Amino acid sequence: MSLKLGYGLELYRGAKLEMPVELIRRCDELGYHVVWTAEAYGSDALSPLAYLAAVTDRIKLGTAVVQIAARTPAATAMHAMTIDALAGGNRTIIGLGVSGPQIVEGWYGRPWGKPNAMLRDYVAIMRKVLRREAPVEHDGSQISLPYTGPGSIGQGKPLKSILHPNPGIEIWLASGAPLNTALCAEVADGWLPMGYGPDGAEVHGPALEKGFAKRDPREKPRDQFEIFTNISVEITDDVQAVLDRQRPLRAMYVGGMGSSSHNYHRDAMARAGFADEADRIQELFLAGRKEEAIAAMPDEYLEQGALYGSVDRIRRRFEGAVPAGATGVTIRTAQPEAVELMAELAGTRDQPRPNQTRPNLAEENQ
Fold this sequence. Notes:
Elements: E1 4-8, H1 21-29, E2 34-37, H2 47-55, E3 60-67, H3 73-87, E4 92-97, H4 101-106, H5 115-131, E5 138-139, E6 144-145, E7 170-175, H6 178-187, E8 190-193, H7 200-212, E9 226-235, H8 239-256, H9 264-271, H10 275-286, H11 290-295, H12 299-302, E10 306-309, H13 311-321, E11 328-332, H14 336-346, H15 361-364
Parallel strand pairs: 1-2, 1-11, 2-3, 3-4, 4-7, 7-8, 8-9, 9-10, 9-11
Antiparallel strand pairs: 5-6
């Protein structure tokens, strides 16, 4: 079986929203499995998927990730059902993440609280909405439906979705630490790991096994559980120039995207085998010594999970860049030729794909 490919959009990083529609359409034609959107504190992750539903045919539409503090689980399920219906069905993947306390409390005005327990309740409620077996009721430690807490007037009513969702909507989780990774293996359809690294299967294996042991038999069997890592790709004659261009952004994430006690990018770098370097970069960055922090970002880390260089160099390094245990990789590149090359190396362009027909809503509403 060929390796599955995803294409990672980074719309959330730009001051202006620019959608590379033709490149995404080409990914669809080349057999890419999914196109991923994301959000931080600018553009959201779900609106672009509704747009892409109208201009693509078969590629799955996923969030990597949507932040759970931004919306209630019922609202996220409604987004998923709506996008999936517009896309023709069985094309939506909702990847969920907890973000960090600076965004949760600073941007959304929500308490950081107990993110693992919140994530468990969130997935459970989304499953109930999407399965539509009964009016939704949930008595969780963090979220309860109907709501009966402070400010309630006691008139909440269990409700069932009016829209009948397609059955193929998937829920994935992003995590790096053991607790949420175990939860992912227990309740989700796939995993978006932070800090997987070449030995990710060994590092994260115990947490995954702990979760699989508790997996609900109603969920997909574990042999259908997906693990997607990331590979940045750039065809170039100057690898060092690419690394130097990457260094400031990566150092900013490791050093400053979070507080000294809660920075998942620093933790991810540490799990990937660069713990001392990650601590040093954060120390320098938080001390205001940003240029030193940038200089301290090692080339070896920048090339881990990356394919930079000539076509021949990328071909030679491709197999070793895909870590054991991964069922797919998300390609991050702006180069159409790199998108083509990765489809060739992964063998996706030659794979038969089911036909997918989007509903013609204009005709249906006439």
